[in-house]
Amino acid sequence: MVLAVVVAVANLAVAAVLLAKSRGGTAAPRIFGRLQSFPRLRAAMHAYLGLGFGVGWLVKDIFPSHSTGDTVLFNVVRILLVAGLVTALLVAFQHARPIRDKAAS
After folding, report:
1. Cα separation, 21 vs 29, whole angstroms
2. How many CB atoms lie within 10 A of CB 89?
3. Which of 6, 7, 11, 63 is the most exposed place for a label (fewest CB within 10 A)?
4. Residue-range domain boundaries for the chain
């Protein structure tokens, strides 16, 4: 149960930091010394993962196995994790266009 809370809080905190440092997604912030491109997509990915893993594990402890609530929760968590995976893939494969060096040309 503690691990579920830690996962949820950590991922949601990273999402909040990304959005706060990027001024709502208009700038690329530096976190741990690395430039974080596409901060909105990264923040969405962390929010989905935090909700899917952390909150999903917490609520799973509340509902008994094979109940209606358990089935609904399983489907919602699966949708959140797939959305997080798709968002992560978009971040990984979407590259910023290189800026042409006007002085070199």
Report:
1. 6
2. 12
3. 6
4. 2-93
d(CA 38, CA 36): 7
pTM above 0.90, yes or no: no
Which amino acid appears at position 83 of this protein?
A
Neighbour count for residue 12 (Cβ, 10 Å): 18
pLDDT tens sequence across 47-96: 888 877 777 777 777 777 778 877 887 788 788 878 878 877 777 676 55
- Give the chain as a DSSP string: -HHHHHHHHHHHHHHHHHHHHTTTTTS--EETTEE--SHHHHHHHHHHHIIIIIIHHHHHHHSPTTSHHHHHHHHHHHHHHHHHHHHHHHHHH--PPPPP-TTT-
